Amino acid sequence: MELKVVKASVEKGEGLGWGKSLLVPSIQEILKNDSQSVPERYIQEPKDRPLISQNLFDSLQVPVIDFSMLAQKDANEIRKLDLACKEWGFFQIINHGVREETMVNMKAAMAAFFELPFQEKSKCAKAANEIQGYGQNFVVSEKQKLDWCDMMFLKTFPHETRNFKYWPLTLPGFKEAVEEYSTEIRKVSNKIDANLSVLMGMDENGLKRKLGEFQQGIRMNYYPTCSRPDLVLGISPHSDGSLFTLLLQDDEINGLQIKHKKVWIDAKPIRNSLVVNIGDAIEILSNGMYKSIEHRAISNEKKPRMSIATFVMPGDEVQIGPLDSMVNGKHLPRSYRNIKYIDYIRQKFANENAGKSSHRHC
Ligand code: OGA
Ligand code: NI
Questions:
Q1: Domain count, the chain
Q2: Which residues surround ligand 2, an ion (CB under 5 A)?
Q3: Is ligand 1 within 6 A of the CB of residue 348?
Q4: What CATH code is carried by the domain that includes residue 130?
Q5: For ligand 1, atom 5, which residue shows the shortest CA distance?
Q6: pTM of the complete model
Q7: What does the pLDDT look like over 120-145, one tens digit per residue?
Q8: Is 256 in the pocket of ligand 1 (CB under 6 A)?
Q9: Other beta carbons less than 10 A from residue 180's beta carbon
Q10: Does a structural domain hold residue 1?
Q11: Which domain holds residue 276?
Q12: Of 89, 176, 196, 228, which is the most exposed, with the fewest CB atoms less than 10 Å away?
């Protein structure tokens, strides 16, 4: 009898959350014992290794969008945004309205967390069957190559999704910094959402009406230095499962690379900017007009790099599929099946980060 109940709840996916990931050692801790070490499990197959010295495409730049011009509904800037979404799936925004102090505090809070002794950080450790907390995600096999990165993932909106079990509440200022940053970023994401709604043939509230309240999750990535950055990857190639993602990266250190027309391009940091990328959910909703682009991060020998990725997502129970305004008989036939968002996300977390493997076309 008991077994049946358990089975039924597993089948319905109850209690499963978004997914799970095998527990792996902290690369930051491994390096504390031997800073030169490059353990086997982190060494990528030759075909997957980054070409660190390759600068052939240095002149290509991810498009920069002036957010204050979007607020003024500047037609030229809106066209630039549309082109950036179509041709790059990535853009950097400046004048986005998030105060510098908010970003500095968020970065400092994250740095303070990762500087804590391992024992302290471990109090926020994720469980194997959860994706929130400190550790690593997308590890599904013992044989898989590991990323040169430790991370901390927290759900931030709606409020009731916050699970403070995973928050370092005793770390002074951490909670406040995340609360302020996530609130400010939500304002920016609402404006992006309004612009994308219009570009996808709806009014400004189109996406909200279709999807309801968005969820927000923050992934803090800590990339330690590596004595052989040519052999490892900070984060393996992947596309994001979000609607879109806003990344706060280090102001100086290169690390993020995006696949543009089959080659890897550096998304060079611009001070105080945010990198925005289209995620899988907008690709599906836009019926493929806006593609979620593969990206990765490389490590470096000189300085640890930190980045903060904020994922904007539909609610778990929301069905996503091409918007009516993006499907038009013969001209724009429907290219994606409808799927409940949580099913999409579970599928994503059940696979390692390996390009765009979990995409569902018709
Ligand atoms: C991510 C991501 C890139 C970076 O967290 O999904 O792509 O530069 N991060 O840290
Ligand atoms: Ni990403």
A1: 1
A2: 240
A3: no
A4: 2.60.120.330
A5: 309
A6: 0.92
A7: 999 999 887 878 999 988 777 878 89
A8: yes
A9: 18
A10: no
A11: 59-353
A12: 176
User: Is residue 296 assigned to a domain?
Assistant: yes
Q: Is residue 307 in contact with ligand 1, taking CB distance under 6 Å?
A: yes
221 lines ligand 1 (CB under 6 A): yes
Mean pLDDT of 44-67: 85
In a domain, residue 33? The reply is no
Nearest ligand, measured from the Cα of 218: 1
pLDDT band at 57 (very low <50, low <70, confident <90, very high): low
Ligand 1 pocket test, pick from 307, 308, 353 with the greatest ligand atom count within 8 Å of Cβ, gives 307
Establish if 24 belongs to a structural domain.
no
